[in-house]
Design a protein that fits this description.
By secondary structure, this protein is α+β, with helices and mostly antiparallel strands. It has ten helices and six strands. It has a four-stranded mixed beta sheet with strand order 2-1-4-3. It has a two-stranded antiparallel ribbon with strand order 5-6. Strand 5 and strand 6 form a beta hairpin. Helix 4 packs antiparallel against helix 6, helix 5 crosses helix 6 and helix 9 runs antiparallel to helix 10.
């Protein structure tokens, strides 16, 4: 059975917004169209609500993280930014209270960690794609509550939380290693009396930073990008995709950085994103191989049981 992806859909005015759990892009169009009141015969296109990116590739849809918000458009409709609709007077969509997960309706106040737990229950490999804040929230959940949400034993859940903690520790170790290398190279530059302009380009220079939502980024993401060292290790898969998708020119305006520093950030985010996706693919490949090898074994055991029945 295909895995469910929890997501949200809205119409062009953003005044209607619903939570859905679907298995494919086609099902998103069908169920989303029904929820938004579209005619069954209407031609519907899907875009990302935040920036209007067209979503028509099924593989790309499956790579998007849980809780991605999509906008469904009729054939004659064009995505517009929020401030372009009614001069900015249109009300943002109210999150629907009816978030359907596994055929069950949930209510407002659905805790964020439960959404992450639902994502893990369908695909444990999605751990790799989570931000540090997501990982920390799952670690802080009482073991018994997380076990109930995942339908795991408490022992297995404790092992999972220990794994999440190790992932956080490993990301911190990566940052420390990069920082040591940076300090070493800086010391070598000073000894060699290299261009002093390169020395003054501090990675964490944030004088007069005013954090504001820009180009679809929330304030937390902007603070990580501007204030933290090696932010690519702290961001979620979705946030990394946003940086890469915006590109160097847009990110220069958002961050107020020069082209060299911004290019380095975008390249680092793209590299981190590719690394995580490769890890997910490797884990999924291993899982598929394990399933294929266990199937013949199960068939042999079934045949053996039938043979014993006939013998008796």
């Amino acid at each position: 059975m295909a895995e469910l992806k929890v997501c949200k859909v809205c119409n062009i005015s953003r005044q209607k917004c619903y939570g859905l759990a679907v298995t494919s892009l086609d099902q998103l169009k069908l169920k989303g169209g029904e929820a938004l009141g579209f005619s069954p015969s209407a031609s519907v296109s899907v875009v990302l609500e935040e920036d209007g990116t067209i979503v028509e590739d099924k593989a790309y849809f499956l790579c998007l993280p849980a809780n991605t918000k999509f906008m469904l458009l009729h054939a004659d409709e064009i995505w517009m930014h929020t401030h372009q609709i009614d001069g900015g007077t249109a009300q943002p969509c109210r999150e629907s209270a009816n978030v359907e997960i596994d055929g069950k309706d949930d209510v407002d106040g659905f805790e964020s960690w439960r959404s992450l737990a639902e994502q893990l229950r369908h695909d444990l490999a999605s751990i790799i794609l989570m931000s540090e804040a997501d990982l920390q929230s799952l670690i802080e959940v009482p073991c018994s509550d997380l076990a109930a949400a995942l339908n795991f034993s408490q022992q297995k859940t404790q092992v999972l939380q220990d794994t999440l903690q190790r992932m956080l520790d490993r990301r911190e170790e990566e940052r420390q290693s990069k920082e040591l290398l940076r300090l070493y190279l800086k010391a070598m530059e000073r000894e060699g009396a290299l261009d002093p302009q390169e020395e003054s380009a501090e990675l964490d220079e944030t004088d007069g930073v005013q954090v504001e939502a820009a180009a679809g980024f929330n304030s937390t993401t902007l603070m990580v990008l501007k204030d933290k060292k090696y932010p690519e290790t702290r961001l979620s898969n979705e946030e990394l995709q946003m940086v890469v998708r915006q590109g160097v020119e847009v990110m220069m305006e958002v961050l107020g950085w020069d082209i060299e520093r911004t290019s380095a950030l975008v390249q680092a985010c793209e590299s981190e994103l590719n690394k995580r996706l490769k890890r997910v693919q490797a884990l999924q490949s291993i899982s598929a191989q394990n399933q294929s090898t266990s199937q013949p074994q199960a068939e042999r055991e079934t045949r053996a049981k039938r043979s014993r029945k006939h013998t008796h």
